[in-house]
Structures are given as structure tokens and as C-alpha cells.
Design a protein that fits this description.
Length: about 250
Amino acid sequence: MASLQPRRLSDDIVQQLETLIAEGTFKAGERLPAERVLAEQFGVSRPSLREALQKLVARGLLVSRQGGGNYVSQELGRGVTDPLLALLESQPSAHRDLLEFRAVLEGACAYQAARRASAQDHQRLQAAHQALEASYENNSRQQEGGADAHFHLAIAEASHNLIYLHTMKGLFDLLKRNVVTNIGGLYQRDPATREQLRAQHAAIIAAILAGEADAAKAAAEQHIRFVEEVLGEARAQHDREARAARRGTFSKS
């Protein structure tokens, strides 16, 4: 019978660092604290920490820069690449598909966030909601789109489900661009839509903070359905107007 090899301290450090990366404490492209600081926080020697960092570099999770410290690999943030973004954005059906997917994913995120969010999560959620509210005052679609996407990402973080979180992170750029595009169509259809969206976001956050999981899920799903319905009507109206314009251009009379 082969003898069991004792577990190395560096393997324990690797496991802890992997957890911090997976849960989003250390984000893609972010620099890790200095080795001295990390060693103190983990209560280990610097040689053991350095060995663990080297293992993570070998696995492609970290990038070590000469004289510049250790960084979480940027590749971890590339869930949907730029070429794929461009391809999806060129397909009208992809916008509908994304909203359909968001209804399922964000409903689940809101449900679990209401059940699992900690006091710190509540603070981050409230900060994200306040940033979204502030963005409305600046009348900037880009700023509002970014704040909206960050708000929904904060809910995914509060769900404490790593698959939900990294799915949302992988879709983040696509989500942000989709929100910016949607905002234009929503507000063009009816300027009062902004207040309806604000009320929907407020309902989602209120249900999560109150720990009402079913209500949070319903509010998140209702929000996406509302966006889908308004945009669908806007597209239908655009198609009707384009059809009428073509008839006028090619009329034989």
C-alpha cells in the first residue's frame, strides 16, 4: 500500500487564494496585496506563500510581473470575447435571447440573494442602487447602462452562487451594452418608462433586503418581462413605419 504524502502548507494557501479569486474578492486583472501583507494575513511564511503563488501562476490563474507584483489573470474576465460581442450585437434575435436568459438568471440571483445576503452584501447592494439612482440625474445612457449592469452584478454577488456570479461576469460587457441599447429604445417609446424602471429596481432591492425570496424573484422577472414587452412594441412600431415608408417610396400613383 502506497504511503500517503503529507499535504504541503502551500497547497492550503493555494486553496484559500483560489476561493478568494472564485468568489470575486480578487477580480480579473486586479493586483494582489504585497507578499508580506498576504503572508501576514494567512499567518504563513513568505517562502510558503511564494510557493503557492508560483503554483497559481503555473495554472494560469495569476500573472507575475517582474518587480510589479502578482495579478489575477485577465483571461478570467473574458467570458464573452469582443468578436463574439460584435456578432451577437449584429443579430436582432440575440437581444431577445439575452433578455429571455436574463429573466431566468436574474430571477434566480434575486431569489438566492434574498435568502443568503449578509449585512455586508446589503451595504454593497444599497451602494449599487444609490449609484444607479444617481446616474438617472446625469441623463447619460452610457453611465446609466454601466450603473444598471453593476446593480444586477451586485445581486449576483449577493446570491453566493459562484456559477451565477461568473456567468453574470462573463456576460458583463454584453449586458452593459444591451442595457445601453435598451435604454434608447425604452425612453424613445415613452419617457415615463424611466420612472417605471426606477420603481422596478427599487422593488427588487426592497424584497432582497427584506429577505423575501419569492417576491425578489418575481420582481426581477417582472422587470425583464417589462423591458422585453416595451422593446417588442417599439420594434413592431419601427417595422410598421419602415413598411409604410417603403410603400410611399415605391408607390405607382
